Amino acid sequence: MNSVTTGSFSSSLLPNLLELARTQRLSLMDLFKFAETFGAEGRRTEAVELYKTWLAFNESQPGQQMVYFNYSVTLRQLGDLSGSINAMRAALKVDPLFGPAHINLGRAYEDGGVSTLAIQQWQSFVDSTSESTPDRLSYRLMALQHIGRVMENAGLLEEAETVLWQAMELRPEKTESGQHWSALRQRQCKWPVLLPSSHITPRQMIDSMSPLTLGCYSDDPMFQLAKAWNYNKGFVGRLNLTGFPQGKVKQKSGTGARLRVGYVSSDLRDHAVGFALRDVLELHDKSSVEIHAYYCGDPVANDPTQTRMKAAVDCWHDIGSLTDEAAARQIVSDEIDILVDVNGYTKHARTKIFAYRPAPVIVNFCGYPGSMGSPFHQYMIADPHIVPEESEIYYSEKVLRIACNQPIDRKRTIAEKPSRQEAGLPEDAFVFACFNGMQKITPSTFNHWMEILTATPGSVLWLLSGNEKADQRLRELAEAAGIAPERILFAPKAPNAKHLARIAVADLFLDTFPYGAHSTAADSLTVGLPVLTFPGKSFAARFCTSVVAATGVPELICEGPQDYIAKAIAYAQNPDSLKAVRNKLEANRETSVLRDIPALARRLEELFWHMQGEAERGEAPVPDLRNLDVYYEIGTELVQENLEFVDEKTYRDRYLQKLTEWHGYSAIPHDNRLWTKDASANA
């Protein structure tokens, strides 16, 4: 065709392009070039018209499937879901094995609320590409991952696990499938969680675990840090920040100007994190700080938590539909001084936003139980129980502290307390309970519970139901341990207010290890249910200890597993001693650190201003990422032993032994963690 110049298109260009398309003089490359330019300028209806005309008059031209595909994408951008589906079907008539169309057609069915059709679409592609080209194998993998994701969201956990195993065996080095697979096995209490095969090595399974899944698997804070660092490299990577207007430090200390603080989260809604932050946001001193909330979750309607938060903050921003870069630019334009990451590596996290450094100070707080291990999170807010000074080596951020890391909402609605019968419990039994998610139950924790039940005949264990198969699996495991399966009871899902009310009818909450209760512990203690726990070394393994300490009942904090078992048995055999603990909880309730949210809000503001001062003086901390590659390699070896509970000295000695071996082969530079100058000299 004769050349047509691009640039900012005038409206007169479209008729010329349509004429070229009708007369088969518009090449495929030029079609894509002009249509994409229309789209970039926001003129998608003109791009649609161009695609539609080309398709009508160029049936004999090669590449039809790609045109139909781009046409479908543009229709989707315009909100025409049905038109997009029809275009993708047309693409597949031209090329039945065109992977991108299979993937997007399944996504369109899913977004249209027909998950069954989505799964069928992807499955048909999987079935037709068992022996295929590398390109088609890539889309086969993608289809299997989508099938697993949709099945997981639909509660079909075993089915999702099976599909994801196929994806893992297809490409074991791709970690996304294994990440979901191991998490699914934890949610179903399938032990051992990791099952290597002839196609998948133990190392590949460990590499694929997410930081959160690892937290439920092992109490290993050094490997937890190294895993976060490694996960960040893959999840975020190294962004090109050339030309991006990063947030600049402004002089505000001593000027009377307010500090602009932004909270970023997908959980600013009816969610455990949302419940935790409601009261805090309402109590921030608006003469000192200006609060911006950046919501990156799915849209919600008539959400009470979000309604309260919108009324409490100075500015509410919905950024869920924005790209990471666009969201970061929004934060820069809002001139945020302190940006708080309330997601970490949890569901719907938008970690790349922080990688753009849209604010001069970035903080890890409240949403994620551990270090981010990133080059851009400078601070972490914790408390003395979760991160004592000697444990700071397990965190890349500078650690600042509040009294207790679990905010609560003192205004939460609690329904009327039900009777034991109404809760589905025996009237005269001693009721041990645990309302943690099933992914936190490990073989060791379950064995501790079985030992406790064996020593306390007539007692029952009340758990939060996972799904029917997982519940039955735990009953069978109990029976194998000599415990009558009817002594394991399950609480069905219930509205939050009713769930809070029913918690109180139990006698003693038994915490899990290594990932203990967080907000669940606060809920239980709030309604007067004692929580028995013991601390480990990692953030998640120490959190419950902090919450219990904040209620003023340190006698519920055990020294280790054996003390935990002994105390649980003793409380069941001597109910009067437990009643004294309940009375103490009730007496301390309103004056406890856990409920002093006004003091928490003031302390957070003090810390925000402290961070601002360091930034103004050029003293903002630089995340310490030294030797994390070495710690990761060593951690992948040690975690396979999965020694859930060891003392601090034994734990560190295991790492030092490995570090010494590594250093003997290739010199390791010193760091401020375990491989210090003194440690290497004594090795």
Compact overview of the structure:
The chain is of the alpha/beta class and 683 residues long. It contains 28 helices and twelve strands. Helix 23 (561-573) crosses helix 24.
Outline the structure in words.
This protein starts with 12 loop residues before the first helix and ends with a helix. The protein has helices spanning 13-22, 28-40, 44-57, 64-77, 81-94, 99-111, 115-128, 134-153, 157-170, 175-187, 202-208, 211-217, 221-235, 272-283, 304-312, 324-333, 351-355, 443-455, 468-480, 496-503, 519-526, 539-550, 561-573, 575-588, 597-616, 628-638, 648-665, 677-682, and strands at residues 259-265, 289-295, 315-318, 338-341, 361-364, 379-382, 398-401, 431-434, 460-464, 488-491, 508-510, 531-532. It is built from 28 helices and twelve strands. It is globular. Helix 6 (99-111) packs antiparallel against helix 7 (115-128) and helix 18 (443-455) runs parallel beside helix 23. The strands form two sheets. The protein has a seven-stranded parallel β-sheet with strand order 3-2-1-4-5-6-7, with helices on one face. Strands 10-9-8-11-12 form a five-stranded parallel β-sheet. It is 50% helix and 8% strand. It is of the alpha/beta class.
